[in-house]
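hey
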């Protein structure tokens, strides 16, 4: 039986956060966009895939007490808006921190975590969450 750590290593780059970058103005978007809202026509067909920086700071956050049924086992939990070091604002769960220790401006980095499990089939979905760093 492989250990959990080993399974994680064998999922290559799954927590890469893929966005897109406008070649005209250099703005980065997440989720991906096919057109830059600022450059419009000039950006169509030119948007480049961009790997969003995995480190950033907590821009704002809230503690979720009333979780949807699928998340019942882990409530309450923190959901934050993270401003990555390359300027992308994204929403993710904040893990590995006591809820009272989470602060605006705290340094965080993307980590690969189980998002949910599909009922009886047991299919596990992984995705990124953010954990404190530094
Ligand atoms: Zn643009």
């Amino acid at each position: 039986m492989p250990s959990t750590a080993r399974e994680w290593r064998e999922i290559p780059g799954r927590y890469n956060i893929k966005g897109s970058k406008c070649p005209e103005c250099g703005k980065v978007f997440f989720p991906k966009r096919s057109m830059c809202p600022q450059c419009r026509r000039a950006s169509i067909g030119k948007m480049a895939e961009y790997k969003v920086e995995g480190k950033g700071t907590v821009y704002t956050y809230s503690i979720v007490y009333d979780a949807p049924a699928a998340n019942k086992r882990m409530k309450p939990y923190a959901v934050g808006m993270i401003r990555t070091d390359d300027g992308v604002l994204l929403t993710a769960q904040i893990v590995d921190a006591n809820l009272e220790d989470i602060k605006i401006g705290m340094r965080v980095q993307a980590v690969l975590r189980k998002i949910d499990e599909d009922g009886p089939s047991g299919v596990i979905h992984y995705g990124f969450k953010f954990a404190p760093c530094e």
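Residues 53-134 form a domain with the OB fold (Dihydrolipoamide Acetyltransferase, E2P) fold (CATH 2.40.50.840). The beta strands are 17-21, 28-29, 48-52, 55-64, 77-84, 89-94, 107-118, 123-132.
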